[in-house]
Specification:
36% helix, single chain, alpha/beta, Amidase signature (AS) enzymes, two-stranded antiparallel ribbon, eleven-stranded mixed sheet, 15 helices
C-alpha cells in the first residue's frame, strides 16, 4: 500500500472511532504515514520518547482525560528529553527539565503528552512578511484540507495535527488569532479563554497582556474537558490570581446546553464580502434561529488606533517578556535577550532565508515606558469597555458572533501571508476576553469557523453556546483531503 492510500485508510479508521479508543501507537503510526511521509504535513515537530510509558502510567488514573494522547505546541515547556524551541535554531537544545504548570495539570488528569507541534517561529512575531506555519526547525506546516494552503498561525501545527487526526487533541497558544485562526482554517474547534484562566509560566512569551494557552479539539465538549484540567491559579503568574475562583466544571451540562432565548449580536461588517462565505454565514444564522437564539444585527467599526496601540504594546512587552523568559532558562551559553536572538539570526542565514526580523528589531527599539503604558490603556479601553462590553450592553446581547476568518490562502514563502479582513478576533485578543471558534462549514472545500465572543470570565457561557450551535449546525464539515486544493 502506498503512503497516500495508507494515509486514507488510517484516516477512515480514526474517523470511524471518533478517536475515542486510539492509543499512542495508533497515533504514532498515523504521524509516520502522513506527517513524516505521504503528504508530509510537518505538523509534529517532536515525538515524546516517553509517551508509551506515560500511557501505561495513565491507565491507573480515573477520569475522562485519562490516557488521552495530546500534542503540545513547542513554545510550551514539557519536562523530559524534549526541547522547547519556539521553532528556532536558537533554542534547539533548550531542554529545561520543567513542566509548564498547564502541562503538569494535564498530566495529573491522566493526559499523555504525545509530542510537540510545529508552529510559526517565535509565534509569528519575528517578521511582518512571514508565512504562517513556517519554522527553521520544522519547515512549513501544511493544511490537511489543502496541503498547498496555509494552516494559519501561530498554533498552525496544533490545528493541522488535530484536523489530520494525529492526536486526540492539542494545546495551542494565542496572542491575537493564533488559536482561533488555525482552528477555523483547519476545520477544528479552538478556544482562547479569558487571559488569566490558564497559567503562562514556562511558555515562551510575546505579551503578558494578551498571551494565553488554550485547547484545540474536534468538539466543543473535548475543549471543555481540557479546560477543566488546564484552568487554575498559578502563584507565579499574577494574571491567574482569580482563576481558581472563576473556573467551573466547563463540561457539566454541555450536552444539553440550549440557545433558546439567548440573544446573539451578529457582527455583519466583520463577515467580509465573499458571496460563498456570506451564504455559509446566513446558513449558520438560520441554524441558530432554529435552535431558539434571538439574533440582533450589530454595526461596528473598530477604531484605527486600537490596532496601532496593540502593536505598540506587543513590541514593548516582547522585548521585556522575552528577555525575562530567556534569562530564566537553565544552563549557560544560550540567548538571554531579544538582542541576542537578533544577533543569532543574523549569524545563521538559514533563519532569514524566507523573511527577515523587522518586528524583532522594532521591539528592541521600543523602550518608551510612558508611551507603552498609554498605548496599553487605550487599546484595552477600546477593545473591552468601549468595544465588546459596550456592544453587548447596547444590544442586550449575551455574546457576539461572526465568521472567524476567511478561507485558507495559498502558502507563499516569497510574499508571506495573505490575511483577510474577516472576523472580530482582535477585539477579544486585546481585551483578554474568551473567544471560541467552531467549524461552520466550508467554502470550496476550505473550512470556515464561526466565532463566539463573550466578556471577561464568561468562558462557560461561550462554550455552552458553541456546543449548542455544534448540535444545530446543518452545513457539512469536510474531512481533510490530504491533497492539494482542487485535486
Amino acid at each position: 500500500m502506498n503512503t497516500r492510500r495508507l494515509a486514507a485508510a488510517l484516516f477512515l479508521g480514526l474517523s470511524g472511532t471518533s478517536a475515542a479508543g486510539q492509543t499512542v501507537d495508533d497515533y504514532l503510526a498515523r504521524i509516520a504515514a502522513i506527517d513524516d511521509a505521504g503528504p508530509m504535513l510537518h505538523a509534529v515537530l517532536t515525538i515524546n520518547p516517553q509517551a508509551r510509558s506515560e500511557e501505561r502510567t495513565a491507565a491507573a488514573i480515573k477520569g475522562p482525560l485519562a490516557g488521552k494522547p495530546v500534542l503540545v505546541k513547542d513554545n510550551i515547556e514539557v519536562a523530559g528529553p524534549m526541547a522547547t524551541t519556539a521553532g528556532s535554531l536558537a533554542l534547539k537544545d533548550n531542554v529545561t527539565g520543567r513542566d509548564a504548570p498547564l502541562v503538569a495539570r494535564l498530566r495529573r488528569s491522566g493526559v499523555v503528552i504525545l509530542g510537540k507541534t510545529n508552529l510559526s517561529e517565535w509565534a509569528n512575531i519575528r517578521s511582518s512578511s512571514s508565512s504562517s506555519g513556517w519554522s527553521a526547525l520544522g519547515g512549513q506546516t501544511r493544511n490537511p484540507h489543502a496541503i498547498d494552503r496555509s494552516p494559519c498561525g501561530s498554533s498552525s501545527g496544533s490545528g493541522a495535527a488535530v484536523a489530520a487526526g494525529l492526536a486526540w487533541a492539542a494545546i495551542g497558544t494565542e496572542t491575537d488569532g493564533s488559536i482561533t485562526c488555525p482552528a477555523s482554517v483547519n476545520g477544528v474547534v479552538g478556544f482562547k479563554p479569558t487571559v488569566g484562566m490558564i497559567s503562562r509560566t514556562h511558555i515562551v512569551p510575546i505579551s503578558h497582556s494578551q498571551d494565553t494557552a488554550g485547547p484545540m479539539t474536534r468538539s466543543v465538549a473535548d475543549a471543555a474537558l481540557l479546560m477543566n484540567a488546564l484552568a487554575g491559579t498559578d502563584p507565579a503568574d499574577s494574571a491567574t490570581a482569580e482563576a481558581d475562583r472563576r473556573k467551573t466544571d466547563f463540561a457539566a451540562g454541555l450536552a444539553t446546553a440550549s440557545l433558546k432565548g439567548v440573544r446573539l449580536g451578529v457582527m455583519r461588517k466583520q463577515a467580509g464580502s465573499h458571496p460563498a462565505l456570506l451564504a455559509l454565514f446566513e446558513q449558520a444564522l438560520a441554524d441558530l434561529r432554529k435552535a431558539g437564539a434571538e439574533l440582533v444585527d450589530i454595526s461596528f467599526d473598530p477604531a484605527p488606533e486600537m490596532g496601532r496601540d496593540e502593536y505598540a504594546v506587543l513590541l514593548h512587552e516582547l522585548r521585556e517578556d522575552m528577555g525575562r523568559y530567556l534569562r530564566s532558562l537553565p544552563g549557560s551559553g544560550g540567548p538571554r535577550s531579544l538582542a541576542d536572538l537578533i544577533a543569532f539570526n543574523k549569524a545563521h542565514p538559514e533563519e532569514l532565508r524566507w523573511f527577515g526580523q523587522d518586528i524583532f528589531e522594532a521591539a528592541e527599539a521600543a523602550t518608551d515606558t510612558s508611551a507603552y503604558a498609554q498605548a496599553r490603556a487605550n487599546a484595552l479601553r477600546l477593545a473591552g469597555p468601549e468595544g465588546i462590553d459596550r456592544l453587548l450592553q447596547e444590544h442586550r446581547a449575551s455574546l457576539l458572533i461572526a465568521p472567524t476568518d476567511g478561507p485558507a490562502w495559498p502558502i507563499d514563502l516569497v510574499l508571506g501571508d495573505h490575511f483577510t479582513s474577516v472576523g472580530a478576533g482582535s477585539l477579544a485578543a486585546i481585551a483578554g476576553y474568551p473567544h471560541l471558534s467552531v467549524p461552520m462549514g466550508a467554502v470550496e472545500g476550505l473550512p470556515i469557523g464561526l466565532s463566539f465572543i463573550g466578556t471577561k470570565w464568561d468562558d462557560r457561557r461561550v462554550l455552552e453556546a458553541g456546543a449548542a450551535y455544534e448540535r444545530a449546525r446543518s452545513a457539512a464539515v469536510p474531512a481533510p483531503s490530504l491533497k492539494r486544493w482542487g485535486e
